[in-house]
Give the backbone structure.
Amino acid sequence: SQQGEEDPQALSIQEGENATMNCSYKTSINNLQWYRQNSGRGLVHLILIRSNEREKHSGRLRVTLDTSKKSSSLLITASRAADTASYFCAGGANSKLTFGKGITLSVRP
Amino acid sequence: GAVVSQHPSWVICKSGTSVKIECRSLDFQATTMFWYRQFPKQSLMLMATSNEGSKATYEQGVEKDKFLINHASLTLSTLTVTSAHPEDSSFYICSALTRGIHGYTFGSGTRLTVV
């Protein structure tokens, strides 16, 4: 079964704008991770936030986690055309990762 | 860092034949490997978890006799799709549980097309 429900499911923005993607999950997690996937390729790990953390930054990425609402958001600042990809959140628990449906981000040059 | 090499990256096979996908951990020992399937424009669905030296644990709805998983060594796990049918056409990805920062290292995926 899938863990997360991301919204929006597709997002199109102009280069330089910020992109915000949200994810909600259903069951208890130890951590929440965000991954990126270019079309037809493997996954690239972006960032991990533990269940006892509320916010984390990594370069142009900012992730938040609200365990009371079972939700997370990923913010990509100053987007670039190269950020065009699908983004997935995944909840980690008991050594397993359960992925959400994914968001397709298109950044127009 | 940890690297998982997955081969082949793509394969086309005829209906009724079997296809083997390999995932090798190149510089670490992968005691646990996860196998996912991803249909076009959909998310990754966990198929099974394999632990070295023991039988794989399959997720509900995944046929263990169709998707044979072997994890005979600490550096190699294989997924064999037996008697493949067109509906098995999908993107298959492995992931090794590691001790890295985020705990998982993914292979690059295998695009299987059954004709």
